[in-house]
Amino acid sequence: MDPRNQNSDDLTPANGKRSTSPFPLPTSVDEIYDCWSKVGVSGDGTCPELTKFVHCRNCPVYSAAAAQLLDRQLPTEYRRGWTEHFSRQKKLIVAGRQSIVIFRIQTEWLALPTRVFQEVSERRTIHSLPHRQQGIVLGLINVRGELLICVSLGRLLGLEADPARDKTNAMYERLVVAEWQGKLLTFPVNEVHGIHRYHPEELKEVPATVAKAGSSFTRDIIAWENKFVGCLDEELLFSTLNRSLS
Length: 246
Fold this sequence. Notes:
Blueprint (H helix, E strand, L loop, with lengths): L49 H4 L6 H12 L4 H12 L10 E8 L2 E6 L3 E6 L14 E7 L2 E6 L1 H5 L5 H6 L5 E7 L2 E7 L1 E8 L19 E7 L2 E6 L1 H12 L1
Parallel strand pairs: 2-10
Antiparallel strand pairs: 1-2, 1-8, 3-6, 4-5, 6-7, 9-10
């Protein structure tokens, strides 16, 4: 693969990809013949040296051409362009002052303040209680040696179960351990996204057209990843749950 003393206006790398730099170096260099794009692996593959080197990147001609490209002088426009790029004032993104944990129950994305969450773990066996089969209370769960009451937020909020969807997304199911006024309780969810920080002005009022049974527990909504998340009223929610346990 011998170099030829010609000029080339197209020094496309052997992988066929061009630079995405906003200030690319000029591609025309004297005394470099890009044989790799003509008779090499990016060309018609007729170079006899391919039988020896297999790929152009293993050929000393290709390495010598790369060295020439790296040793050339930087154009004034190139240096100036990058200097201006890095000297621009950066736009600082101010993190939100408040945080919530976003989770999913059935098809609804919901959120509660981060402070009420004690732990998020894998789903565990629920030990049912007598005469509590159809209510909000699902039973008891052993969490680190302590028996905690497990409740169904889905039933409280009126969210219907979808067996087909639940079976498909079973791998994402989690158990949430929450604390409210010194009392611990647990509830299963279909998925937990995690902590999301936001500014109070991002909260929007619940539309009047929302007619779901659980809408009374939704205090605000917030936009997140092209979805609307219902921010639950933790005081109303947990006070209702505590009354159902008495």
